[in-house]
User: Which sequence fits this backbone?
């Protein structure tokens, strides 16, 4: 029963993506929607990304310095570990998990409400490919913005780590800088960016699927929103496992 | 002109529409009436293509909509306008943007021309002053009028209205009815209205299709309702005694 339902949903998802990735009927309207989605899904998320990353960067640095570092470890370890955690996992995978909550529920509830209030039917009646018009700009908008969010997150995390040196005096800025610069592998940055592109696609497409296919009323929109967040989070975790294995 | 030929629609084991045959003429307000659950919304959705009929034909001026390829169907849909029960305005857009939307999507005209056309449509429904407002800032009646303006912005040949008077007071309902009737005559459209409103039936019903339990139970004009002899229709139309007495005394 579960397998049958899973296959049914997967089939409907693939079918929806088939309708989504079509040439837009009007490039003018597509451009407008694309810019709107970049602002709504990307720019509007910068604040939360900066805030969370700043505190996580600071907390990682404090945890490593106070609880992990010992006398036999070099002084740069805290800065080094903070940088690697931010680059390799936090700014890409964990940040996308957080964004799947914010952006995913936003997409699912927006499309779900449009479905229940017949706005999607109205588009169809006008002869508009509603899937392509509504979903494609969301996917492309988020995929465009996510590498920027990853960069903002990494930079904010590093600033958070420096705050523990400048404000908390838990570590010296010199040790932190030495750690941040130690054995830097530029590929790690690209790895995070590449992973985030996949995660952005998962968040936007899976959430759109749940929102677009809502049947019923406001309770069903709420359920779709929850399902969108849970499913995209699970898919991000699974794909993180594979992508990390492939890209490392 | 829209013709329905032997139209059937079933959902799993349940037959909702059974052998519907009728013709909706140009320049007329065609009404589909029937009790809740009689199948009139399903019929409307089959006609506009939101549901696929189980069998039968839907002919738009001789063009078979059911058997059409997707691309042809999309092109035909650009000749349609629809007013939904909930108005279905795009809530992220202003009134003017809502009316301009079909033009922005499909018209090659310049912005100035598109805007002029949208303003003409808004003026036609007396809502030019509300062009910068958003749907949640205007009343239900005004939303319906915006929906009418949006529906006619592309000069459609076919206009569909799903319960256009639902949730409106009698006076506003009358305004909406007169507007739809006037636009139908002005543009020579084929208009199909799905309604529960008996004032609409007796006011603008030039062709009435009464559906009962998924079958055509009666067909005629508003003037033929009283003398139809169809008890089921009379019970439905004259459910209110006050309305029955008023109509009979008028007759």
Assistant:
């Amino acid at each position: 029963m579960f397998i049958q339902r899973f296959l049914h949903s997967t089939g409907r998802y693939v079918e929806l993506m088939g309708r989504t990735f079509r040439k837009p009927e009007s490039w003018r309207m597509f451009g407008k929607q694309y810019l709107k989605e970049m602002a709504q899904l990307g720019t509007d998320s910068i604040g939360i990304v900066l805030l969370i990353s700043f505190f996580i960067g600071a907390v990682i640095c404090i945890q490593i310095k106070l609880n992990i570092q010992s006398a036999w470890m070099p002084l740069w370890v805290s800065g080094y570990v903070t940088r690697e955690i931010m680059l390799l996992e936090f700014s890409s995978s964990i940040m996308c998990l957080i964004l799947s909550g914010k952006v995913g529920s936003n997409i699912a509830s927006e499309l779900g409400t449009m479905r229940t209030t017949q706005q999607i039917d109205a588009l169809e009646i006008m002869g508009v490919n509603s899937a392509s018009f509504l979903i494609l700009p969301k996917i492309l908008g988020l995929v465009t913005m996510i590498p920027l969010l990853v960069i903002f997150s990494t930079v904010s995390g590093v600033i958070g780590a420096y705050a523990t040196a400048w404000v908390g005096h838990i570590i010296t800025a010199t040790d932190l800088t030495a750690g941040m610069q130690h054995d830097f592998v530029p590929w790690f940055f690209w790895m995070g960016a590449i992973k985030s592109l996949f995660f952005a696609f998962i968040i936007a497409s899976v959430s759109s699927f749940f929102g677009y296919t809502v049947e019923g009323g406001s309770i069903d929109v709420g359920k779709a929103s929850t399902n969108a967040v849970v499913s995209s989070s699970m898919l991000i975790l699974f794909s993180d496992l594979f992508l990390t294995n492939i890209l490392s | 002109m829209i013709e329905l030929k032997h139209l059937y629609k079933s959902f799993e084991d349940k037959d909702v529409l059974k052998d519907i045959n009728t013709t909706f003429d140009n320049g007329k307000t065609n009404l589909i009436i029937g009790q809740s659950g009689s199948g009139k919304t399903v019929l409307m959705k089959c006609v506009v293509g939101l549901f696929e009929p189980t069998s039968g034909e839907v002919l738009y001026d001789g063009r078979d909509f059911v058997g059409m390829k997707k691309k042809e169907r999309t092109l035909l849909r650009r000749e349609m306008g629809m007013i939904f029960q909930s108005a279905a305005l795009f809530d992220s857009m202003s009134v003017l943007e809502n009316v301009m939307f079909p033009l922005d999507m499909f018209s090659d005209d310049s912005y100035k021309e598109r805007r002029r056309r949208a303003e003409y449509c808004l003026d036609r429904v007396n809502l030019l002053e509300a062009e910068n407002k958003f749907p949640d800032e205007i009343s239900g009646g005004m939303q319906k009028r915006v929906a009418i303006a949006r529906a006619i912005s592309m000069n459609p040949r076919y206009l569909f209205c799903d319960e256009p008077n639902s949730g409106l007071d009698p006076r506003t309902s009358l305004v909406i009815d007169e507007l739809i009737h006037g636009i139908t005559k002005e543009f020579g459209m084929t208009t199909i209205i799905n309604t529960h409103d008996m004032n609409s039936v007796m006011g603008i019903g030039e062709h009435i299709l009464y559906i009962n339990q998924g079958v055509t139970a009666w067909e005629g004009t508003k003037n033929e309702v009283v003398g139809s002899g169809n008890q089921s229709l009379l019970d439905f139309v004259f459910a209110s005694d006050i309305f029955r007495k008023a109509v009979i005394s008028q007759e």
Observations:
- The beta strands of chain B are 2-11, 14-24, 29-33, 55-60, 63-64, 80-83, 158-162, 190-194, 207-212, 215-220.
